[in-house]
Specification:
The complex is a heterodimer of chains A (107) and B (117). Chain A has 107 residues and is mainly β. Chain A contains no helices and eleven strands. In chain A, strands 2, 4, 5, 6, 9, 10 and 11 form a seven-stranded mixed β-sheet that branches. Chain A has a four-stranded antiparallel β-sheet with strand order 1-3-8-7, with no helix packed on it. Chain A is globular, with a radius of gyration of 13 Å. In chain B, strands 2, 4, 5, 6, 9, 10 and 11 form a seven-stranded mixed β-sheet that branches. A four-stranded antiparallel β-sheet of chain B has the order 1-3-8-7, with no helix packed on it. Chain B has 117 residues and is mostly beta strands. The N and C termini of chain B lie far apart (40 Å). The chains are: A mainly beta (107), B mainly beta (117).
Chain lengths: 107, 117
């Protein structure tokens, strides 16, 4: 199975800050990576797939990069509605696996 | 509006069974592969099972293999998860999610399964 490791597990930031979250795969997954946002009590929402493709309707302040084993999600200017937990997910092979999550908290 | 609605969750004793349902609307359900994903209380996301549009390809997590069975009825725009031999560690919110090349682009609101004596 491919293990996905996210860092940091949590980050405190202020509105307007740039935030970057990283995700590392235990083996190469090319660009088969997605990022999801989850708010308390809600279902996850797809933000980015294929490592860097923005899902329709997602604000352009979100961006993704990377390939192989190392990936990142950046939020260029944090907005109040961006405080949430973010998960990466590999789509290279079954079983599909998620990272442990990164909680973006208000500073 | 594209929508997925889960149902069938509840409280069950260890060793019991439940059948979850997911109904899709607003899109051609028969054209899409589907997934079940679960989230234990206070924990992260865990993929559970995948079924392709024609039910010819099915994959499952090792943690549920031999106990859970995924199926679908395209005529009823529905997907199911038959869960047998339930364990305390199966307690979670279960989401159905539409598949986009092994990503998940549409999610339901989830249904809660609690396994406890």
């Amino acid at each position: 199975d491919i293990q996905m490791t996210q860092s940091p597990s949590s980050v405190s930031a202020s509105v307007g800050d740039r935030v970057t979250i990283t995700c590392r795969a235990s083996q190469g997954i090319s660009s088969w990576l997605a990022w999801y946002q989850q708010k308390p009590g809600k279902a996850p929402k797809l933000l980015i797939y294929a490592a860097s493709i923005l899902q329709s309707g997602v604000p352009s302040r979100f961006s993704g990069s990377g390939s192989g084993t190392d990936f990142s999600l950046s939020i260029s200017s944090l907005q109040p509605e961006d405080f949430a937990i973010y998960y990466c997910q590999q789509a290279m092979s079954f079983p599909l696996t998620f990272g442990g999550g990164t909680k973006v908290e208000i500073k | 509006e594209v929508q997925l609605v889960e149902s069938g969750g509840g409280l069950v004793q260890p060793g019991g069974s439940l059948r979850l349902s997911c109904v899709g609307s607003g899109f051609n359900f028969y054209s899409y592969s589907m997934n079940w994903v679960r989230q234990a209380p206070g924990k992260g996301l865990e993929w559970v099972s995948f079924i392709n549009s024609g039910s010819s390809a099915i994959y499952q997590a090792d943690s549920v293999k031999g106990r859970f069975t995924i199926s679908r009825d395209n005529a009823k725009n529905s997907m199911f998860l038959q869960m047998n031999s339930l364990r305390v560690e199966d307690t979670a919110v279960y989401y159905c999610a539409r598949d986009l090349s092994y990503y998940m682009d549409v999610w339901g609101k989830g249904t809660t399964v609690a396994v406890s004596s």
